[in-house]
Amino acid sequence: MGMPVITASSTTREQAITDLIQSVALEETALSHILNAEGEKIQKMVALPDVTPEVLLATNKSVESMVNAVSRLEMILQSKLSSFSNCLCNPEIV
Fold first, then answer.
1. Into how many domains does the chain fold?
2. What is the pLDDT of residues 53-88, one digit of tens each?
3. Residue 94 belongs to some domain of the structure
């Protein structure tokens, strides 16, 4: 297997920034769906008539783990956007 070939792109700077912002927005949407699903999971578990405290605690731990992962991804997305914050206000800065 050889080295990948990377060719120059004709994408403009403005389009690249727009693409980055759109990708972050799509990722944010996906993360919101994940958080919503986790909330629904808790609601369904709590509504079960014979659910045990152990099952509720395990569900809570699972949801907490997912929320922590989403939080880490949010920080990464914020970092992506902040790296271009100067570019959005001042088009002269690369």
1. 1
2. 999 999 999 999 999 999 999 999 999 888 877 765
3. no
